[in-house]
Design goal:
It catalyses: glycine + O2 + H2O = glyoxylate + H2O2 + NH4(+). Keywords: Membrane, Oxidoreductase, Thiamine biosynthesis, Transmembrane, Transmembrane helix. InterPro entries: FAD-dep_OxRdtase, FAD/NAD-bd_sf, Gly_oxidase_ThiO. One of its GO terms (molecular function) is glycine oxidase activity. The chain crosses the membrane at residues 7-24. Strand 11 (240-243) and strand 12 (246-250) form a beta hairpin. With 373 residues, the protein is of the alpha/beta class. The protein has ten helices and 17 strands. The longest helix is centred in the N-terminal third of the chain and has 30 residues, at 56-85. It has two domains: 3-59 and 151-220 and 307-360, 3-Layer(bba) Sandwich (FAD/NAD(P)-binding domain), CATH 3.50.50; 93-145 and 221-305, D-Amino Acid Oxidase, subunit A, domain 2 (D-Amino Acid Oxidase, Chain A, domain 2, 2-Layer Sandwich). The radius of gyration is 20 Å and the shape is globular. Strands 3, 4, 5, 10, 11, 12, 13, 14 and 15 form a nine-stranded mixed sheet that branches. Strands 1, 2, 6, 7, 8, 9, 16 and 17 form an eight-stranded mixed sheet that branches.
Amino acid sequence: MKQFSEVAVVGGGIIGSAIAYYLAKAGHQVDLFEAGQVGSGSTQAAAGMLGAHSEYKAFGASLHSFARTSQKLYEEAETDIRRLVGIDIERRTGGLLQLVFTAEEKARVSEICSLEGVTWLDQTSAEKEVPGLTKSILGAVHIADDVHVTPAIACRGFHSAAQMLGARIHAFTRVDDVVNEAGWYRIQTSKGEWQADYAVIAGGVWSNVLLERLGLGTPFYPVKGECIAVTNTQMPLSCSLFHDQHYIVPRNNNELIIGATKVRDDWSTEPTFGGIQTVMEKARQMLPEIEKMPLLRSWAGLRPQTIDGKPLIGEHPEKKGLFIAAGHQRNGILLAPVTGKMICDLIDGNAVPEVWTKAFRVNRLNIGEEVWI
């Protein structure tokens, strides 16, 4: 028996959950479909850094506002989610300390030192901020607003709040096909068929399967990230540590999350000996005492990336009512709220900054155009 929905969201990671939350908050009837447990894929594997400033080079000046908007939306969502469903997304303040080892690295971070909430610390001041920090640094950049959340809990907060607002969450419901019919979309799932006015594909790297069937190619490839967790038995750590795309992130349960490798085109979610060795060595370089901490576990996740490093967010120009929101690479947690709100605004016909719609337009890769901002 066919069932009906206004908006079908395919993918129950933090991106899909945030989309469902903002759509439900705006009064839309939403059905969210997830092949497994909601939030059990790349979301669960992430560290949760909201690094708008530390990722400044990746975003560029033109898109920095996109990341900063998402940081601010997290503050609003944190309050709203707690009010609606009583979930604390563990948005932990304290900021991020980006370590600088060489004069060349110091020159590279000079641009972000002019940004709001960013302070340069010499080696002595940095060590006062984090006792036990390596003495090999020249200094560090403290970024007050680059805080972090616990991704699995934040994802649960978004989809639980969406459900409280009327969204229907379909866990363990695989979407096998999305078919463009005359003015609507047929959503074929492992538990039956839905008819939807709008379809939003937000399944991370696994979105390729549906997009290829829709004639949109396979725009995403996996970047495997390997991580470990240790129990912090040595020192208080109130901020995240960051250097050369590697990090140490403190959690509320006294764990330190340490990562991550970047292995292109590897579809395996099993960590390797070599990958974990790399992660451990980078952590030791930042915080030598970490080698004394008990090892808890290791894991790997698949970050979805495009050839130009920017996500696809928006409506396909030739398939009205079909929206894509995937390819956020290592910034999926950071960009979840602004992506959710952007998709909602596009469906509602609200204004979205042109620089965002142009940079993230979903057909730019199909026509061989790479957008470098």
